[in-house]
Amino acid sequence: MIDSLPGVVALDHQPDALAISPDGRSLYVLLTDGTLLFLDTVDNRTTGTVALSEGGFVAPAPDGRLYVSSPTANAVHVVDTTTRTLLRTVAVGGQPHELAVTHGGRRVYVAQDNQAVSVIDTAADTVIRTVPLSGDVSGLVASPVAGGPVYVAMDIDNIAVIDTATDTVVGTPVSVNGEIVSTTVSPDGRLVFAAGGEIDSIAVVDAATDTLITKVPVPGWPSDVVVSPDGRRAFVAVSNADAISVIDTATFSELRRIPLQGAPFRLALTPDGLRGYAAALRPGSLQQFPTRTRTATMGASPEAVAVSPDERRVYVACTGADAVAVVGTQDAQIATGAGANAVAVTPDGQQAYVVNCAEDTVSVVDTQGESVVATVPAPGIALAMARDGRHVYVVGGGLLSVIDTGTRQVTEALSVPEGAQGVAVTRDGTRLFVTDSSTGTVVVITTSPLAVLGSPVAVGGDGGLQSVAVTPDGRQIYVANTSSNNVSVIDGLSLQVSAVIAVGQFPFCLAMSPDGRTVYVTNLESDSVSVIDTNTRTVVGEPISVPRSPQGVTVGGDGRHLFVTSGGLRRGHRHRHHDPRGRPRRQALSGPLPWGVALVSGPRAGSTPPTAAPTPSR
Q1: What letters, b where the CB count within 10 A reaches 16 and e where it falls short, cover 292-325?
Q2: Partner of 221 for a Cys bridge, out of 197, 327, 330, 435, CB 3.0 to 4.6 A?
Q3: Burial label, 587 (beta-carbon count in 10 A; 0-12, 13-18, 19+)
Q4: Cα(first)–Cα(last) distance of the chain, in Å?
Q5: Among candidates 296, 291, 335, which has minimal Cα distance to 317?
Q6: What is the pLDDT of residues 396-435, one digit of tens each?
Q7: What is the mean pLDDT of residues 2-23?
Q8: Exposed, middle or buried, 58 (CB in 10 Å: 0-12/13-18/19+)?
Q9: Partners of residue 451 on adjacent β-strands
Q10: Cα 283 from Cα 260, distance rounded (Å)
């Protein structure tokens, strides 16, 4: 699964601090010039800014307030993240820096340069006491457990413990024998992790006994550390290596490194743990990184893909297995017909329609019972689902067949070119667009009555047209041209080509985001996915690297994830989904030759039913 946008967001100034909202929908980035950015985690758009005095540290509270330290002002700013306004400024003194919000959000602990920690009562946003320390503070973190302590990195290489019930230092500071620049606590409160740049390691402390368990070597100056919500992985910003180190918290060993385009120094994870962010200094940017990987069996030759609106299930049409692979919480295969190569799902998630190109039939799958409940005679190579779920449009064998999903019968048919490879339907269901690979044209068809509208639209090139996708407003039609390595854009009003966008080698399948702002293109021979902005009609960012020969593609119902099938992998064929921008989150092994994929579930507001990938004509 691939996240919706490329992984690097350039910033006007270097970032100073990074945090994510409790619901995971917003990212807060504090820049060195004091600008607080609000970014939408779906598409990385800046949704607002607040001008503050300078850069510092940020800590979100559960109620939507954001606390921002200001060293030169000797104060903490309180920002309302809903209205994106500065509510008030709390004087704390002592050049405040790191902040920690306790479980439940009742207190904010503020590290100061005068060997003390101030305690802010969030009910009144006032300092209620100051905790004296015996050394300088280099970081602090609050336990995520109710009533848990606050851990203070002190005197470079010690960790002191503040009892939040009494706001006093308890016990003896734990020595880690090396500089500490960042600390975090596991979700269960049992382990404290401390990143140390000069010693190139992560120190692990047992919170119950306040003893050093081990040090995990992480060469390259580790500057920040966060732990996944399930506690299984720690992610470390390795600044001098331009990478994220992934630590197994069970074995305390480094599993792998994820390369970034710059030097990360601040990290944040979404509450579900499926997405990670890194603030990088060189250059000043925000980047995403993967957090999970999973493998599951599919089938040979994954060809087409569709996804349920809630992303609980992915359906992959596998040409080599004559089956649809079901990828989700429970992996399964449902035997369909010969040459299963395209799939689409009804908006309510109850039915999946599978084209069996080798036997000119369409299988109707009950997604709840995971069985074929009907077989409809209809030649097919591609299909599209109407947004209301009442009709499925199937092209192949020189015919466009209309299947009524209520009766599961073909109700109408229309002659189309033999070279038809792809089909898409407008959101209002009034028009269809069918690509003719043999002539390099797109046939426009009205649905009521079912008839060809005007002359085919010449797209150009040497033919080889494959997939087609339409924006929700019907004003732009995108067509993949495999022979010319580009995507043509047809104006929905004039029905003329209005733009040609160069992409990768052998663009094969297209997927439109539910909001119509983004088109994703699988480049079968470039092992990548290109991302097109429909507003500017240009490719944005670098192509997303995927396993060999990516083919089918579809977008999740909320637009946050992209699902891609790859048919050229050795040792089985994997369906891969990525979480961070272009970074793999997990793989699922399908049956032989997985081709198309769809997600199944109940309807989601604003979502568009996915369409399936066509069979390649080379």
Answers
A1: bbeebbbbbbbbbbbbbbbbbbbbbbbbbbbbbb
A2: 197
A3: buried
A4: 27
A5: 335
A6: 999 999 999 999 999 999 999 999 999 999 999 999 999 9
A7: 78
A8: buried
A9: 446
A10: 11
Compute the half-sphere exposure of residue 566: CA atoms within 13 Å on the CB side of its CA: 27
Cα–Cα distance for residue pair 463/136, rounded to 1 Å:
70
- Whether residue 120 contacts residue 90, with contact meaning beta carbons closer than 8 Å, is answered with yes
- In the sheet where 99-101 sits, what is the strand order? 99-101, 107-112, 116-121, 126-132
Radius of gyration of the chain (CA): 27
pLDDT of 346-388, one tens digit each? 998 899 999 999 999 999 999 888 889 999 999 999 999 999 9
Average pLDDT for residues 445-451, to the nearest whole number?
A: 97
- DSSP one-letter string for 370-415: TEEEEEEE---SEEEE-TTSSEEEEEETTEEEEEETTTTEEEEEEE
Q: What percent of the chain is modeled with pLDDT above 90?
A: 62
Which among 286, 347, 346, 206 is positioned nearest to 18, based on CA atoms?
286
CA proximity to 43, closest of 31, 55, 57, 27: 27
Is the pTM here over 0.70, yes or no? Answer: no
Q: How many of the other CB atoms lie within 10 Å of CB of 571?
A: 6
For residue 233, give the amino acid letter: R
CA–CA separation, 229 and 301 (whole Å) = 35
The string of pLDDT tens digits covering residues 249-292 is 999 999 888 888 889 999 999 988 878 999 998 778 998 877 76
